Recover the amino acids of this structure.
């Protein structure tokens, strides 16, 4: 499928494109995420878990869980928690299921992050690796997360961060296109497959706008940890009590 600008502006088209894209790359996702991040993806995810402030979450929702890195790390750290892992791609979820051990309390559901199969105010913690850029409708997604969190519950999202400075963003865009395009060309003869990362960031809010969107959705204590010269960020936020 050819990536078009309209894929980013229509939630339905973005959902269809993402379903196609992530099913295409599901088999290689585990290795390519390490290659593209120079092996740092695992470390960022561990850091997300390490810096959570919730103590004993009963229910955790991992949004756009993919092959389940965060779900599995969460289940290891919080062995008594129930974890619900949702994703749009059946192939990604299949890989997650294969990785699960009997002691991992992870339930896997095929679902859209903008239409979560979760009751109001039932989660102590919501996480997401690279979900913010991929959500068909970012504002709608943030409201849904707010809605499913218990008062006092925490959310934590790892994703690329867009520089507020337009020159820095241009540099970031070119670097990501070259790096992603190279791997897309090599593995799929299609630079857009991983060039998608750069394109999706182009229409993503910058770091300040993202914080404003989170506050507008009702969250408080929005705090960001940055990595890789500010190109990657983990955003933590809380639903007020
Ligand atoms: C870059 S992968 C990240 C996977 C995993 N969270 C991680 O950090 O490794 C993005 C994931 O988002 C999923 N995704 C994209 N759009 C989605 C949607 N609307 N609802 C649920 N999952 C979605 C894809 O299927 C894919 O597994």
């Amino acid at each position: 499928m050819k990536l078009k600008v309209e894929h980013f502006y229509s939630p339905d088209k973005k959902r269809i494109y993402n379903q196609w894209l992530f099913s295409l790359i599901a088999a290689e996702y585990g290795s390519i995420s390490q290659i593209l991040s120079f092996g740092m993806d695992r470390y960022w995810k561990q850091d997300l878990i390490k810096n959570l402030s919730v103590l004993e979450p009963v229910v955790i929702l991992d949004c756009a869980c993919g092959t389940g890195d965060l779900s599995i790390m969460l289940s290891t750290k919080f062995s008594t928690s129930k974890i619900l892992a949702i994703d749009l791609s059946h192939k990604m979820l299949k890989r997650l299921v294969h990785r699960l051990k009997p002691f991992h309390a992870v339930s896997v559901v095929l679902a859209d992050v903008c239409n979560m199969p979760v009751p109001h105010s039932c989660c102590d913690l919501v996480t997401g690796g690279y979900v913010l850029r991929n959500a068909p409708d970012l504002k709608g997604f943030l409201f849904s997360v707010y809605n499913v969190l218990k008062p006092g519950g925490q959310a934590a999202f790892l994703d690329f961060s867009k520089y507020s400075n337009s020159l820095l963003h241009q540099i970031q865009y070119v670097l990501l296109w070259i790096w992603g395009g190279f791997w897309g060309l090599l593995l799929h003869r299609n630079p857009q497959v991983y060039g998608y990362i750069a394109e999706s960031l182009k229409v993503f809010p910058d770091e300040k706008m993202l914080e404003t969107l989170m506050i507008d959705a009702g969250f408080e204590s929005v705090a960001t940890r940055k990595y890789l010269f500010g190109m990657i960020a983990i955003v933590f936020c809380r639903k007020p009590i």
Observations:
- Residues 15, 18, 22, 33, 64-66, 69-70, 87-89, 92, 112-114, 129-131, 134, 136 surround S-adenosylmethionine (CB under 6 Å).
